[in-house]
Every structure is written in structure tokens, then in C-alpha cells.
Amino acid sequence: MSDVLDIHTHNQKASGGEAIFNIIPGEVAIRKNRFYSVGMHPWYISADELQREEQWNKLVSLSKNPNVLALGETGLDKLCETPFELQQEMFCRHIRLSETDARLPLIIHCVHANAELIELRRQSKAEMPWIVHGFRGKKELALEFLNHGFYLSLGEHYQEETLRAIPIDRLFIETDESNTNIRALYEKAALIKEIDVAAFTAAIHENIKNVFFRH
């Protein structure tokens, strides 16, 4: 593993040792020199039950691969066409898999469903780490998530006040769909937090070890 790791990217051209590549079950073959997260995004949950179960079974199988470091992205999105009840059902299946057979952290997509997400965390009594990816919310929302045990991952765009408020031991950096170099994002975040880049990188590296390399 590189000293700098992009915990969530869709950019398949990124360097293998520097990223956790997000894939949909059955989308691409897993390569030995790469790290992955695998999940059913709320945008792409099939309305067809047979297709949905086929995809879920592939996900469960992939979760056993040692190169898969997380489940996701998964989550809740009130702006997408997938019925919200179906999103909740599939997200709860990810939670159960995360807590039982897979023992992997969750990378979470959340749009206009913050209260529901926090309530699911409370009800599930989850032990595995939950990471809200691509977080762009205000400081107050960040603190609410942090108070309920979440980690937050920031990408290219975020509110600087929010970044300053997040303790470094609960923070990750990602590119998501951006082509920006991950090291540039680390440098920008370190500057905003007024921390030496090497110290910032080392702290995030420690978070990565604790969350994604627990086994």
C-alpha cells in the first residue's frame, strides 16, 4: 500500500496501489494488484427481483476476495428514482453483511437522507466503520455524524470550515469521479487544516490501516 491512498475512486486509470476502486458487482474483474470496494449503489438497484438477487449474490461472493476492502458504495438517496423503501432494504442487507460474514467497513452515499442514515446506524448497533463519502455538508452536520460514530471522506469540493472541524482521526480523502491527483487533494487539505503535509499524510495513513486493513 502506498503512503497515500485514495479511499474511493471511479477512475480506473488511477495507480493500483494508491486507490480503492469502486465497482458494481459483475462490472469488472478483480485484479490482484488493486484494492476494491463493491456495493449496490442506490441509483442502480434493479427493479427486477431476479436481477437484483443475482447482483447481490455476486456481491456476497466478491466480498470474500482479500482485495475487497469495503462494501459500497451503498446508501440512501431521496433524489433518485429507486423507491426509497427498496433502497433501505438493500442498504440494510449491506449492513448485515458488513457486520457478519464480510466484516468490512461501509462506504456510504447519502443524499437528503441524513436523519434516516443516523437512525439506521443507531438501530443496527453497528460495530464496523461507516464512512460517508464525498461529504460536502456544513460543519454542524459533520459534527452530528461524528457524534454518532461515522467517519467522513472529503473529495475535491467541500466547505473549508467543515474540514477544519473534523478530527484528523475521523477523516479520509478521495477523488470519487474527479481526475484530480489524490496527492494534490492531500496537500490542499493539509494546508487548510494548517498541518504539515507529511504529518497529515501519516495520520490519514493510520486511519486507513485501522479501518481498511483490520484483518
Please provide a written account of the structure:
Helix 5 (160-165) links the parallel strand 7 (151-154) and strand 8. This protein has a single domain, classed as Metal-dependent hydrolases (TIM Barrel). With 215 residues, it is of the alpha/beta class. The mean pLDDT is 95. Strands 1-2-3-4-5-6-7-8 form an eight-stranded parallel beta sheet, sandwiched between helices. Helix content is 39%, strand content 18%. It has helices at residues 49-62, 84-99, 114-124, 139-147, 160-165, 182-192, 197-212, and strands at 6-9, 19-23, 35-38, 68-77, 106-111, 130-132, 151-154, 171-173. The longest helix has 16 residues, at 84-99.
Give me some keywords for this one.
215 residues; alpha/beta; TIM Barrel; 8-stranded parallel sheet; 39% helix; 18% strand
